[in-house]
Write a structure and sequence with these properties.
The protein is an alpha/beta fold and 373 residues long. The chain contains 16 helices and seven strands.
Length: 373
Amino acid sequence: MSAADDLPEPDRRGALPHPREATTLLGQQAAESAFLDAWRAGRLHHAWLLRGPEGVGKATLAYRIARALIDAGDGAAPESLAPPPDCPVMRRIRAGAEPRFAVLRRGLNERTKRLKTQIGVDDVRALRPFLALSAPDGGWRVVLVDAADEMTVQAANALLKSLEEPPPRTAFLLVAHAPGRLLPTIRSRTRALDLGPLDADTLAAALDGLGERPTAEEAAGLAALAGGSVGVAMTLSAEGGLDLYGSLCALLAPGDLPAFRVDRTSLVRLAEGMGGKAGEGRYALALTLGPLLLARLARAAAGAAQSPALPMEARLLDHAARNPALAPALAEAAGTMAEDGGAARAVSLDPARTVIDTWLGLEAALARPLARV
């Protein structure tokens, strides 16, 4: 087995099945119907931009579209994009053996033997032999780009040439978590399919299908924290994210809410569980959930309604909503905590010390704007 074989696939999300392996797509009927309607009306665009938060099913929908287009050949649009039992095209796509299908994603850095951080121009140029061929039966060929917002500017410009002068019967499917990062010229040559966050019920059904069994209350909390993303919800569910988020909420002592003072005893107890090999996952999750809590409080202070992920968060959100002067400081503190946490992990600072320092720094930062009010 080569070093490349040991690498995770860049478009695989944690313990979730790879999108090419999925047989169902939950909560995105509107996007799927929009594509089928265009196909049936003879308005099948050559390039589609699948937009939405990470982990809501964009790549899964792209694989469903690719399979349906290839399977249809010169035929009419199917009633559904769901693959029929024992679909040979689906089997070949799963095996990486479908000759009419190409995937553009981050590749291997030959020097470091690690995955590249971006899709480079050489990755795009490697598509040329595929694009120069014709489908053997006159049907469709499909290029999937996952994720398009990971392309360098040079790679995007190289792909743009194919979008401007697409080969016959070739469809491009661009998955984008942050479409604003794409070149305007890329966006202007694609038709958008928007996929929204999953609601609590749909998220619960998705988790149930993956072997998780959240209660209704847990599903609502996961939906609030995960932004409707199955991938994020799966990680939170598997790693005790809701309990940890509750511990972070408990750091902000109720009696001191006007200054958002941090409960030192709770903070030290929490930080002590972050050290060593056993605490690595909890530490990483805390560095993600802390800024998320502050961002949610900032949005509440700015007047945006936030559904509490947990009952104990409700008091914090209510206080933030009644103190709009805190909004800028909370937003800035969220960014600072995320940056400081990332820097601390990069240089392997002590986890317990990092957690304590970031939260005490938060207390000081939030006290300043209140002192001026």
